[in-house]
Amino acid sequence: MENTAQIGFRKTAAMVFGTTGLFTALYLTAGIALPQLPSLLIFCILGALFLMPAEWFLMLRQSRKDFGKYSLSAALIGQEKQPIIKILFSALILFGMAGIFSFTILSLENRLLFTLRERLLSFLPVGFDWNNIEYIKSFPENIRLATCIVYFALNVFIGPITEEFFFRGYLTAYNSKYGKWTPVMITIIFSLYHFWLPFQNIFRIFVFLPMAYTSYRKKNLYICMASHIFCNLFSTISFITAIMN
């Protein structure tokens, strides 16, 4: 399946940042208006109802335009099959690299941006600091359980699957004119698109660039998708364990 249509950097950036900008504004507004719920739960619900559907809509609309029907065709251009065992093996190696970066790059970035982060959070209600475990534990058990279930579903499956089809599939294919710089460009855009987590961009780039480049070279986005799921699974289980203990 091949296609010569291209989006270009400016349109890609406008599409991504426009969508995530609207989503983040909605998240902040709802989080302030509904203090009786953890902001993380509000984020997950809005992500499932707005951000993820918006990305699916953009992919499906492109497929309809270029291939005549609503499908994943726009996200699967140039993709080649790989044995599942090879996909999982590559994903586990990339997951291991991500673990190393979490102890090095993430720790360094957190120290460097600590003051700036604290200043920004001082303007927001306490709930917008996802590292504040005690805040989330202050809610009744049924709300905490609901938060954990929704967060697990979004962060481990819905989010990674949608984002990989969108970024490593659709946007990478439609920016292929940049050649080997395409995965670099898309990785940077992907990192910056996390407006709700603005202080881990360097870490995200270090983690996702090897994943994106491997998927680009192997022409298989499922390598990055599996790596993404492994990383989020590990961090989500650690987070939920801290909340429910």
Description:
The protein is an all-alpha fold. The protein has ten helices and no strands. It has helices spanning 9-33, 39-67, 84-103, 105-112, 114-121, 133-137, 141-173, 182-192, 201-218, 221-244. Helix 1 packs antiparallel against helix 2 (39-67) and helix 7 runs antiparallel to helix 10 (221-244). The protein is globular, with a radius of gyration of 18 Å.
Counted beta strands: 0
- The percent of residues in helical segments reads over 70%
Low-confidence stretches: none
Using only C-alpha atoms, the radius of gyration works out to 18 Å
- How do the SSEs run, as a string of H and E? HHHHHHHHHH
Largest sheet: none
Total helices: the number is 10
Overall pLDDT confidence:
95
What is the topological layout?
Blueprint: H1 9-33, H2 39-67, H3 84-103, H4 105-112, H5 114-121, H6 133-137, H7 141-173, H8 182-192, H9 201-218, H10 221-244
Helix pairs in contact: 1-2, 1-8, 2-7, 3-4, 3-9, 3-10, 7-8, 7-10, 8-9, 9-10
List keywords for this structure.
single chain; 245 residues; globular; mainly alpha
